[in-house]
Amino acid sequence: MATAVADLIATRSAEYARAWQRVQGGITRLIDKLLTQGRTVDEVIQILGATDFAALAGDLGMAKAGKDLQGAYLEVLRGKVGRGQVTEQTLRAMQSFTRDSFLAQEGAFPAKLKEETIKALLAGGRTSDVEAALRAVVDRHDAATLANTALNTFSRSVEYEMAKQDPPDALYEYEGPVDDRTRDICLAMAAAGALTRSEIEERFPGAFVDGGGYNCRHSWVPSDAARETAPGDAAERLGDREPQTVREVLSGD
User: Fold this and answer.
1) Sign for the pseudo-dihedral over CA of 193, 194, 195, 201
2) Whole-angstrom distance, CA of residue 247 vs CA of residue 252
């Protein structure tokens, strides 16, 4: 079940990232079209300056991509059917929190895209410069990270609420891939083996909901769930390194 939810989140995050790539391609095609029509660079800049880039991004596919991503919250929830119940009010609050955080970050993209597009045109007037500038604002990895973090945080929040209904001695293990992308803090949690909620909070404060930080692909799941992670493999990869705490990862320290 946990692996299925993780695969779903990875798929939806990748789709969201590709949508932003299509937006960037649409902007450069628009500029090419205007220049082909005989518009000067100054005229193109004036047109873009009067353009609502948020609406433009929506027309180029982000309206649908955003709607699809919001629908993924329900898909994540369906993937967790079968354990403790969470009230509708609590679910709405968790979804609202993660969605609002996501939208606040996404909302900064259109204005930045507009700014960097115009700056690139002022600097040289070539669409290749514009393409490079747009990728610097939000590349495929950045967009996928934003979506992945929002959905995984929601998923872990639901898991945490369900775990509150388990007995105090219920055991959980850190589920997810152990590979070259895995942070040291996630290796440490995977290597820890089975822990109770209180032990998790004592050793890894905040990790039940935040995982290992931004773009984390892991979550705490009941020990009797199907496992992808082998504690021994994680311990071997970690070695003697002292990992940052989850809070340090989130703060960037």
Assistant:
1) positive
2) 8
